[in-house]
Amino acid sequence: MRTDTGHVFKLEDYRPCDYLIPRTSLDFRLSPDATHVTALLTVERREGVAASAPLVLDGDGLTLLGVVVDGQALAAGDYEATPDRLTILKPPAAQRFELRLETEIAPSRNEALMGLYRSNNVYCTQCEAEGFRRITYFLDRPDILSVYTVRIEAPHNEAPLLLSNGNPVERGALANGRHYAVWHDPFPKPSYLFALVAGALGKVAGSFTTMSGREVELGIYVESGKERLAGYAMDALKRSMAWDEEAFGREYDLDVFNIVAVSDFNMGAMENKGLNVFNDKYVLADEETATDADFANIEAIIAHEYFHNWTGNRITCRDWFQLCLKEGLTVYRDHEFSADQRSRAVKRIAEVRTLRAHQFPEDQGPLAHPVRPRRYREINNFYTATVYEKGSEVVRMIRTILGPETFRAGMDLYFERHDGEAATIEDFLKVFEDVSGRDLAQFALWYHQAGTPNLTVSSAHNAAAKEFTLEIEQSVPPTPSESRKRLMHIPLAFGLVGANGKPVGWDTVEGATVDDGVIHIRKRRHTVRFSGVSERPSVSLNRGFSAPITLSVQQKADDQFFLAAHDSDAFSRWQAFNTLLTDALIAAFRQILGGREPAFAARLAELAGRIAGDEALEPAYRALALALPGEADIARDIGKGIDPDAIFAAREALARAIAEANRKVFLALYDSLADNSPFSPDAASAGRRALRNILLDYLSLLADGAGLAARHFNVATNMTDRAAALAVLAYRHSGTAEAEEALAAFEARYRGDALVLDKWFQIQAGVPGAETVEKVRELMRHPAFSIANPNRVRSLIGTFSSANQTGFHRPDGEGYRFFAETVLEVEKRNPQVAARLATALRSWRSLEPGRQVKAKQALLDIGKAENLSADLRDIVERTLA
Ligand code: 0A1
Ligand code: ZN
What we know:
By secondary structure, the chain is of the alpha+beta class. It contains 27 helices and 33 strands. The chain has an eight-stranded mixed beta sheet with strand order 6-5-9-3-2-12-15-14, with no helix packed on it. Strand 2 (19-29) and strand 3 form a beta hairpin. It is globular, with a radius of gyration of 28 Å. O-methyl-L-tyrosine (0A1) is lined by residues 126, 128, 266-271, 304-305, 327, 383. O-methyl-L-tyrosine binds at residues 126, 128, 266-271, 304-305, 327, 383. It comes from Mesorhizobium australafricanum. Belongs to the peptidase M1 family.
C-alpha cells in the first residue's frame, strides 16, 4: 500500500520528460505468486537535454531482478533502485538506447486491484491512473506515448486465453503444457491504457463492418457458462460503433475489439486500447437477473468505453490535471448516444437528477474542485462527479453556445489536429475558438473555477408599456482555496409561456445577448427587457438544463403549477413539478421540526394524479415526475441544520398524501399497466414498468399495501419488478411476514449468484431506521459477502453510508462508528475503494449540531489510524479542512 508522502502535484509544475520511450516490448511469464516481467524499452533522450541527465522511472512496490543497458548489465553504482523508483544515474551518451528491466510481481497478493491481479482465477490488469508502475518501472505518465508489443506465456490449462492490446500477431505451444501469444498495438499509447488478460473464459463472438468496409472481430469474454448473459452488451457495442461513425465520423481502427468482464474491479470499466476490461456488473444481463436500470447502465458504459477509443486513446491527456478532457467529453458522448437510443427528454431528466445528487453536494462541500483541478495529492480521488458529470455539462454548453454545426466542425478539427497527441483543455477550447471565431476566455472559467453558480431571477410585467423584464443576478459561492470568484458566462435557455400554453414572442430585447432561445449571462447583473409583450407570461428558465447552476426564482406558485402542466419543454415541465414537490417537502420539514403535523396543498396531490394518468406523456416521464425528491436531495436544498429523521417523516407524509388523494386513479392505472407480453429491455417497455412500480410504491402506503407488494413480488417475471417489490416491502413494511418471506425467497433463489445477491444486500442496507446498522453488521457475516470485493462492499456498506440517511445518521452516532471501523477494514486491502467510501461524510457540516460532532469524530478517528494510505488520508484531511 502506498502511504502518504504528503507531496502535492501542481498543474503549474508540468514539464515534459527529459526522455521518451517510443517502443515498449513486454514479456510476461505468468504465475500467481511470482510473475516474471521483462520490459525492453527503447529510450530516447529529448532534443537539447544534457547527456548527464539521469533517467528516473516510476515504480510501486516492485522487486527488481536485473537492469541491462544496450546489452550490458549495469554495475551497482550506475543505478539506484527502490521498490518505488529506478534511477539510471549515467545513461549512455547516445540519444537512443535500450533498457532491459526484469521485475517480479505477485498477482495473487494484489488486493488493491491496481496493476496485475487475479480475479476469479483470471489474470487481469488495471493501469489507470498509476497502476502500470506496479508491473514494471516506467515513465508512468500520460504524455509518454509508446508502441507496445506484448508476449504472454502461461500454462495452457490455467490460461488458455491470452489477451493484450492491439492485434494478435502470433501464438504457439511450448514445452511442458505451456503456450504463448504475441500482441502488437500499432497506435502509440500511454501506459495507463496497457492491458493484459489471461485465464479460462467463455467467449461471445461478433463482427462489425466499419464505414470504410473493414471487418472488425468483436469478442466479449465472460465467466464460462455466462455467455448467454453477454448478448445485450454485444448488441450495445455494435450500436455504439455505428453511432460514433454517424454522430462524430469516428471509425474503429484495429482488427479486433475485445471486452473482458471480471468480478473484482474498482470502478465501472476501463477503456484499454482494443481490450476494455469491465466490472461484470456492467456486462452480464438478462431479465431474470438484471433490472431495466442495469440494462441502461450496460448500454451507457459499453458506449462510454468504446467512445474513449477516440476521446481518450487516439487523443489522450497531457497530464492527469486534464482528466476531464477525456472523461467530460466521453460522458457527453455517451449521454448523447443514450438520448438517441432512448427518450431524449427522459434521459436528460435522469442526467440532471444524477448531477444534482452527486456533483452538486461535491461542489458545495469541502471536496469541491474545478473541472480541471490545479492540485492533487492522490489522483485516484479525482475520478469525481465534477470531472465526469460537470465536465460533460461544460461540453454540452459549448454546443449550446456555438450551435450543432459549429460544434461538430470544432470536434472534427479536434480529431484532425490532435490525433496521436497528449492534449490539454486549452487545445480543446482552441478548436472551438478557431471554427467559430469567438473568444471563449470567460467561458473557460467553467473548467477553472469550482462551485455551482447561482442565478437569482425576478420578473415584472408592465401592461401599459407592454414590457416584460427579467432581473438576473449571478453569484458563485466560495469554495476551498478559492474565496473570490470571477463572473461566468452562463447560457440560460428560456421561454416565455402565455396563458394558453403557447410561446409568447417579443419585438425587441435589450440588456443581454439573446440568441436562439438563450440569454447569455456574462455580467453580475442583467436587466433583460422584452418589448411588445402585452400579456404577463410565465417564464420557463434553464430549459433542458442548459447550464449546471442553481436558480432562485421569485415566481408565484401559480406560475409553477401552470408550467408543471403546460411547459412545452419537457425538462422544464418536470422541473416545475419537482420544484413544487421540493418546496412542499421543505415546508413540511420545518413544520415537523416545529412540532407540527405537516400539511400539503390539495392541488399538489391532484396534479400528481393528473400527471400519472396523462396519456400524452411517456410512461417513463410520468414515473420520473412522480418520484419524490430523495432525502439527500431535500437535505441539499435545505442546506444546513439537517435532521434526516425529520426529512424522512416529511417525505413519507407527502407520499401518503399523494397516495390517499389518488388511490382510485393509481390503482386503475396500476392494473392497466400489468403486462403479460414477453420481456423486452427497450426503453418504452422499461418506462411502463417504471410507472407501474412507482405506483406500487405509493399504493403500498395504503390499506393492504404489504399484500399488494407481496403479490407483485410473487408474480414478477423479471428482475425489475421483483427488485422493486422487494424494496417496497423492505422499506415500507420492514419486519412484516410479507417482507421477511420475500427477502428469504430472494436469497434462496439467487444464493449462488453474487451479482444478483448484491441487490439483496443493497435493499437491506437501505432500509430506513435505527436498526439497519446492526443488520448491516450481520450481513457482513453472510457467506456471499466479501470485504475484498468492491461490488459487495459498495452494495452493502456503500449503500448504507451514502443512501440510507436515517440509518447512517442515527442520532447516537452508531452509524458513523460502524462506518469508521469498516472504512479502515476495507482500506487494509483496497485504499481506493476505502477512500471512495469515506466521501460519504463530505456533507457533515450541514448536519444539525448533535450529529455534526459525532460525524466529525468518526473522521478524526479514521485520520488517527496508523499508516493511512495516501488515498484515504487525502479524503479525510480535505473533508475536515
Ligand atoms: N477511465 C475509466 C475509469 C477508471 C478510472 C480508474 C480506474 O482505476 C481503478 C478504473 C477505471 C472510465 O472512465 O471508464
Ligand atoms: Zn471514462
